[in-house]
Amino acid sequence: MKGYVFHGPGQAAWEEVPDPGVREPTDAVVRVDTVTICGTDLHILGGDVPEVRPGTVLGHEAVGEVVEAGPEARTVRPGERVLVSCVTACGRCRYCREGVYGQCLGGGGWILGHLIDGTQAQYVRVPFADLSLHPLPAAVTDTEAVLLADIFPTAYEVGVLNGRVRPGDTVVVVGAGPVGLAVVATARLFAPERVIVADLSPARLEAARKLGAEAVADAREDPGQLVADLTGGLGADVAVEAVGVPETFEMCTRMVRPGGHVANVGVHGRPATLHLEELWIKDVTITTGLVDTSSTPTLLRMTAAGRLPAAQFVTHTFPLDRMEEAYDVFAHAAETGALKVVLGGPPPREVVPVPTAAAD
């Protein structure tokens, strides 16, 4: 088969790779029908995630059809249409028993496209298939579903739930990329008084408005003043960092009110300064987190009911074999206007299962 293979910082290619097969009895192999590109993939290519070894197929989000299932995969069957979650869960360790799948100690967590071959390929092996694959209702399209593999649960869990958004809150979101926009969409489920979005891109600020943000600000023009003006000088109840650079994290800590919450969602490749000389007296709660995807079944039901605007996030579509072009479009979003890039199309042939193989 073919997959998008990482060869080191700044180097990747769509090329021939071995077909995947069931290695453990709880595995499944999925034919990839629809896949997308994440900002984290760009961080990997930028060298910010050194754990990713050269030779790894990238990607951790997909929709497809199960073509093979191990003998202990009990809830998925060949022929079933499924969502491949970005986080894998063993279901047995302490963290999985608490629903904190992102910290799985049993061989799961974020492994696809990170520690093992990922989803940006024609087929993918998914460990612990029973908890890591979600059967899809007919009412949810492939394009909608693939956005529930990562950006919507990440925004909802790490941004909205960790930030403890409540009715009547002022929520400021710094960064109007796909995850930041998904924070806007899911924060509105909790009836905040207002959502304010700061970004550098006029197009993304306009997208935030269309998703329900009451106010937007150019991040270069002191959005903290807008927040102060709209809150009578109090500050935001919840500030969500959705970029992953020191400047935006520090901006969030300046805009949050005493007793408020800063929810860091962005993937950081450099240290940020924590100004405790200012924050120690403010009773501020700062949270970080990797998505657990425990909310995915709920988000799937909400999408099927028309409550989440997932399809609005897709700005570009490509066939699977134009992966390199799709990456270029997504990486230059300021010029292309890309929000989410979705790739899909039927595979050229059937997978040839490989019963056993060496461990990763």
Automatic annotation (TrEMBL):
It holds the Pfam family ADH_zinc_N. Residues 8-343 form the Enoyl reductase (ER) domain. Keywords: Metal-binding, Oxidoreductase, Zinc. It comes from the Bacteria. The keyword Ribonucleoprotein does not apply. Its cofactor is Zn(2+). Belongs to the zinc-containing alcohol dehydrogenase family. This is Zinc-binding dehydrogenase. It comes from Streptomyces andamanensis. The lineage of its organism: Bacteria, Bacillati, Actinomycetota, Actinomycetes, Kitasatosporales.
